[in-house]
């Protein structure tokens, strides 16, 4: 399927619906949408949840939701695409192998895949390259992906976002009384420690600007692109028919694509994986009911369970107005100047 553009200016801005009260939930430990047979019993029986991710990335959450009785629609709204020129990332990986970086800061699983591919082109592995630098991961999924390729993580923030990672570096710098670079870094006395920051093309400047403000020298390299992926016909039909009760938003890019491809509905609850994704959802006018406490499948499932158990199913037919009769500008929030992190929130 040919990916569409992430933004279509001819459509104009997405309609804005009145904001709903948001809740925080405590954590708990193909072209056709994949639905899978749900047991039909459990707290989410009779509910339909859209998980707009690839089958592989959605597997854990989908399994949990189906075990709770939900019907789950799985269809990706975005996908990763290669950069046109891999020379910058290959050069950065070569520098990493020479020990010129004190830190590598990773804010998405996609970036790890591209670093591993670049290492393979050099006939080496991320584990071999990791020995000369310390590594920071934005969240648990990113940490696990690094550990899976043999890289030990030295820093993971409590708040799993670029802002949280900058704060973790600030705290670490305070503990050391200076920039927390390795003593044997190739940077000479008084020189800023170099930090490799591999990101997607839609990443905000939050990470790089924050590191620079702490005295580091960030080297930002675009290692992949994020492009739209058309949602399956099954998903589009279910959304238009008012069959979807909730949607899971796992990045700002996903939120924007849901608004662009499907349009906001006032009768579809939405749960965001983190605050950057929540800000993006508000900006494009999506209803937002909860923000997961942590960017994990368990936390997302807990948030969905809380939101859906508190509301009865609302079915709005294809001939009715899914956004209600309220003034679309009533209560609209201003655009948050803080853009989402790399691809939104890590997951």
Structural account:
- The protein has 347 residues and is of the alpha/beta class.
- The chain folds into two domains: 9-77 and 229-309, 3-Layer(aba) Sandwich (Rossmann fold); 81-226, Rossmann fold (3-Layer(aba) Sandwich), CATH 3.40.50.10090.
- The protein has helices spanning 55-67, 87-97, 109-121, 126-129, 140-148, 162-176, 206-213, 233-240, 252-261, 275-283, 297-309, and strands at residues 23-25, 48-51, 71-74, 78-81, 103-106, 134-137, 194-200, 217-228, 246-249, 269-272, 290-292.
- The protein has a six-stranded parallel beta sheet, with helices on both faces.
- The longest helix has 15 residues, at 162-176.
Descriptive terms for the model:
disordered N terminus, 5-stranded mixed β-sheet, 11 helices, 347 residues, Rossmann fold, disordered C terminus, alpha/beta
